[in-house]
Automatic annotation (TrEMBL):
Binding site for 8-oxo-dGTP: R257, E268, F269, P270, G271, N353
UniProt organism field: Lusitaniella coriacea LEGE 07157
Annotated Nudix hydrolase domain residues: 235-363
Name the UniProt record assigns to this protein: Adenine DNA glycosylase
Stored NCBIfam families: mutt, mutY
Binding site for Mg(2+): G271, E291
Length: 363
DNA sequence: GACTCGTGGGG
DNA sequence: TCCCCAAGAGT
């Protein structure tokens, strides 16, 4: 299914390439991983940048490379250490997969990041966009990308009359067709910069855009309405009871979540969902019995806080609790530990839990 | 192919 | 306060 639009002609493609590359030369962003020859460092940046804005990534990227300066350093590190470095970035499977892939590369590629696209795509956490991003940036390989920026830019360029999600293969073809094959590295970076700095989701700066005259959305005056979006369903809101359980020595009980799934491998304060008609206190007592097999007394309220994930929202109702009887067991977690408030910083926690720790310190 | 998987910032 | 969305990938 070819697009019979203006972008069809080879002549115009060359023109679009030149316009974008010229713009990039003067207006492209200066980012820490640009002009970086080490594929390991480019790889780290690409993973951190998945679904995450540049401004958020930069400090994590700098700290990461100090802590794990080489692929081998990452491969030999502890998973807990890796997750601690990732703490706060979200989508923790990225950190787990980065670690897993580093070990795999040491074992199967002699510790050298592979250059074959097929080999790169086999690595956990790397899909087509990230593979193209790494190999074009590190080796100038002529591989297209299709991230959120490129989807938005291309959807506007051809005035795509449907949500990008419903036209993924068409957009991949267009990204591949537009790619300046001899300058893949610069071209891919340039089109992402265009999306991030001019062709933004809201209030695109079309007057500054090198593709303005070629952009069908702009020419139709519908750039602010594109790309079209899918209808979204309302997010469920769950009420959660959370326990800060203290023993007679003043230590606090924390547990490590299962390796897979939401916040996998991170530590947390135990608790769970409040059932309909259930009080917070009853919920906490029940959950702790079910998950850890111990008896507690639910005490005073510490804090309540709201937190939003991608697919649901929660309100945490946190109470102090007193340990009464029983040795904590790992029934629905990997590990449990009694820690002091001084030791607790060494463990990686999800954001909602770091707010609880801050509240504990403030008391 | 539809779900799952975090967090921060902007409007 | 609420919604949107960002250098996507795994299941």
């Amino acid at each position: 299914m070819t697009d019979k639009s203006a972008t069809e002609s080879e002549l115009e493609i060359v023109s679009l390439q030149q316009l974008l590359l010229d713009w990039y030369q003067t207006q492209g962003r200066d980012l820490p991983w640009r002009n970086e020859p080490d594929p390991y460092k480019i790889w780290v940046s690409e993973i951190m940048l998945q679904q995450t804005q540049v401004k958020t990534v930069i400090p994590y990227y700098q700290r990461w490379l100090k802590q794990f300066p080489t692929l081998n350093a990452l491969a030999t590190a502890d998973l807990q250490e890796v997750l601690k470095a990732w703490e706060g970035l979200g989508y923790y499977a990225r950190g787990r997969n980065l670690h897993k892939a580093a070990k795999y590369i040491v074992r199967h590629h002699d510790g050298v990041f592979p250059t074959q696209p097929e080999a790169v795509l086999k690595l956990p956490g790397i899909g087509r966009t990230t593979a193209g991003g790494i190999l074009s940036a590190a080796f100038n390989q002529p591989l297209p990308i299709l991230d959120g920026n490129v989807k938005r830019v291309l959807a506007r360029l051809i005035a795509l009359p449907k949500p990008p999600k419903q036209a993924v293969s068409q957009l991949w073809e267009l990204s591949e067709r537009l790619l300046a094959r001899d300058r893949a590295k610069d071209f891919n970076q340039a089109i992402m910069d265009l999306g991030a700095t001019l062709c933004t989701p809201k209030n695109p700066a079309c007057l500054l855009c090198p593709w303005q005259q070629h952009c069908q959305a702009y020419n139709k005056g519908i750039q602010s309405q594109l790309p079209m979006k899918e209808p979204s369903s309302p997010l469920p809101h769950k009420q959660i009871g959370v326990a800060v359980i203290r023993n007679t020595q003043g230590q606090i009980l924390i547990d490590r979540r299962l390796e897979e799934g939401l916040l996998g491998g991170l530590w947390e304060f135990p608790g769970g969902k409040i059932e309909p008609g259930e009080t917070v206190q009853a919920c906490i007592k029940r959950e702790i019995k079910e998950e850890l097999g111990i008896e507690i007394e639910v005490g005073e309220h510490l804090i309540s806080l709201d937190h939003a994930y991608t697919h649901f929202r929660i309100t945490l109702h946190v109470h102090y609790c007193r340990h009464l009887a029983g040795e904590p067991q790992t029934i629905e977690c990997q590990e449990v530990r009694w820690v002091t408030l001084e030791e607790i910083d060494r463990y990686p926690f999800p954001k909602a839990n770091t707010k609880i720790i801050a509240a504990l310190r403030a008391r």
